[in-house]
Amino acid sequence: MDPAQYTFPWPLEGYQDQGPLPEVQLPDKSIENPMTGKLSSSYTTFTAPLDNGIRGAFDVHIYYSHHDEQETAFAGALWERVRREFPELRIYKFWDRPVGPHLIAMFEVNLFTPTQFGAFVPWLAINRGPLSVLIHPNTVNESGEQAKDEEERNHTQRAIWMGERLPVRTQIFRRKH
Question: Would the pLDDT of 104 be above 60?
């Protein structure tokens, strides 16, 4: 996961010709940030190259040790709760063994909109209990097709973890497609 092997867009792309921002500190110690009158489009559509289509922009993998009865019971109850509270999300089977690049049992949830991400991820931060969670983006190429050459990066450099970071078999993403 060496960042030097990747390129990154410049953070100020599209904002270079704007004037300086004020350096006024407000009573709550935050910095004054002038309103522009419009919200970022990222509130309604995921930023490219995230998949705004059928695959969903983010996969959420919730891991548990299938050898631990208590953890398995907790994960099963969480899986049921997610299905009941978030029926609009795509929720996959409760795997009782490792599958794909995942070295321990897990279940998966897909997030399709920034609103779903904004609701589910904070909820999960509070309700995940002892379980580790991998949140990784799904990216597409300029043609809108799955960016298979970006899978390893999506599962490592672009990944978000809650709880203990667990190993993922990323070598399967290096195989010829």
Answer: yes
d(CA 87, CA 84) in angstroms, rounded, equals 6
3-state secondary structure of 109: strand
Q: Which two tokens stand for residue 36?
A: 């522009």
**Is 125 part of any domain?**
yes
Cβ partners under 8 Å of residue 177, min gap 6:
148, 149
Measured distance CA(23)–CA(32) in Å, rounded: 7
Specify the pTM. Answer: 0.89
pLDDT value at residue 172: 86
Name the band, by pLDDT with cuts 50, 70 and 90, for residue 73. Answer: very high
Instruction: Determine, yes or no, domain membership for 170.
Output: yes
Q: In one letter, which amino acid is 100? A: G
Cα 132 off chain centre by: 13
Q: Is residue 25 part of a domain?
A: no
Cα–Cα nearest to 40, from 122, 142, 143, 118: 118
Length of the chain (residues): 177
Residue with tokens 């321990």: 104
Give the alpha-carbon dihedral of 119, 99, 54, 175, to 10 degrees.
Answer: 130
Q: Is residue 36 part of a domain?
A: no
- Give the structural domain span for 123: 58-174
CATH number of the domain bearing residue 89: 3.30.70.1240
Q: How many domains does the chain have?
A: 1
